[in-house]
Records
---
Amino acid sequence: DVPSEFGNGRGMDVEWVPARNTILFTRESGVYEVDRRTKKIVWSHKAPSSHDADRLPNGNTLVAWGWGSDSSDPEVREVDSSGTVVWKWHAEQHLGDEKRIFAQEGFTHTNSVVRLANGNTLVSLRNFYMLVEVDPAGRVVWKLPGLFTTPHDPEILPNGNILVNTRGPQVINEITPSGKVVWRYKPDQHDVQTIRYNHRLPNGNILFVERTKIIEITPTREIVWQLRLKDVGTGRADKRRWLYKAERVPSGHRPIAIHA
């Protein structure tokens, strides 16, 4: 059970903030930062339809507005510690004549945003089957359209490739910036029904999250660790109990690289 001060709705994203030893997570009501030891809220930003949030090196928070937004809402916002919006991006102003393939749960159903090392922002537009990179002025400087079906959770790898999962079928792909698939993992479709998150760990393995499972696989696609929820089904009746994301955190005093 979630305390009332965390708002209503599902949890959609979570990450460990190492500088503050806190947990940043989103719910349908907004973004919350919680002290790991006291379990008290130390920062929050009320924003309906928050799908993804990353704490940036400058202390600001990058947030994706997901399923509840329409074409007049900015799909991406950067807010400072006081909650002031210091940067935002409206997809409709920059997509031009791009075809929207999927028309459910918002205009774009933006499910992930990542601030890149060059200062640009990578945005996952599920309803357009597209990834775009936008510069600080909001201009699209790179795009990858026709990305299989409903892309989720893209991650830029050290070699410049992109790790991203797509659905129908459920697949995790490593692709080049031009869209060439160089590695693919297609799990048993009866066992893994909805991949929600994928991340390349420092050891080279991939951690991914499904409705009722967290699984770690090697580059040769061998399962080396997994967690499965007991007595939680994959049917809609158990939707509020499903997993969405998992973040590997340090054990003891050993540092570990994290997604953000």
---
Amino acid sequence: KATIFVSRPKFEPPGPELSEARHPRLFAAIREVATAMGTNMPTAVYLVPEVNAFVAEVDGFGGFGRRRVMGIGLGLLHVDNISQVKATLAHEFGHFVGGDTWLSAMVYRTRSSIGRMLEALGGGWLSKPFEWYGNLFLRVTYAVSRAQELAADRAAVALAGTEAHVTGLEIEARSALLYSLFLRQEVGP
């Protein structure tokens, strides 16, 4: 039975949680960037198997009880220098400061609802208004998403400088391809 209502997915930790006691230099960098950007520290920081980082607000309801979490890729920590890590952290904290994490959760649930509705309607003539709305929603949210990324990039440049941010992005893009290959072919087996 299909439904247009999409429940908020239960947060599953994406990797091991890191502690400040065991990783004081990393947490000092995170705290430095959070303070410089005038925002709070995440309540949890996770190590993820990527050359990437992310932030999210999880749990809670209606804006209450949400927790800020951050994921930092093992590959990212391996390839970036401290300035580049700080640029990445500033980019991610830019999403917190801009309120992007709340909006992205709503966009995800709306996209899922549209997809479920289209699936339930099975492509018939009744699905045409939902297809039209879905395409419009994707175009609008893509534009909003792009603006959020550019604002987060500006935060990274303002805090860490253009060179740190740009060289970090270049190194991360190249390394992500090799790191995922390494995980699949060497670590996985």
---
Amino acid sequence: MSSFVHLHTHSYYSLLDGIPSPEDLLLAAKKQGMKALALTDHNGLYGAVEFYQKALEYKIKPIIGAELTLADGFNLMLLVKDAGGYRNLCRLISKGRLNGGHIGFKLHLKDFTGSSEGLICLSGGHKGKINHLLKKRHADEAVLYLRKLSDLFGEDIYLEMQHFSSHDSLVNIRLRDLAVENKIPLVATNDVHFVSNKDWYLRRIMHAIDANTVLEKTATAGTSEQYLKNSDLMHDLFNSFPGVVQ
């Protein structure tokens, strides 16, 4: 499990959502002996250059990506494989900004046509449409959506599995079955938004500011489990799912 890599990771460039700087994330990863780390902020690449440069300083392989918001309200995770993929991700982000208007962001699956080469797609975890459909027991719809993603990304598609509480176990079993039946690999992520679980309080404050409400009424800030967990903890979470890419 020493080769575990966090592939779904947010910095403070996920505005009013992520807590750490790109360097904070890299320092934590280096302390844990990790050889690589992804930065996947929401709908942007604002921290990509800073992250890349600092990663090289710390001798950690940088993986550039972004979590993109689709028009249906669900998310997809994209990771860059090469220079062409970076250009395509920039193109998609620009298109999402243009489609979304002044402060919005909106992409349709059709927008990925011709712009998917050089990119790896993760299904989005808790905020992805596939998780939502499986939670609702709409397995047939999940299969159809997965096929659409496969048509766009070919073999560069992974089902993203997350585990923050016991309530996630059933959906993860359904994800495992979907992966086996459709020969799609699974990948474990933790939707990281802070380095330590103690920082969840700060994320809740930022969500309250964003919603213009009080802290007690904030229910959108996820859980305290969304921190940069070490390899052993991630292994313990997913050791009942053999074959998960970690």
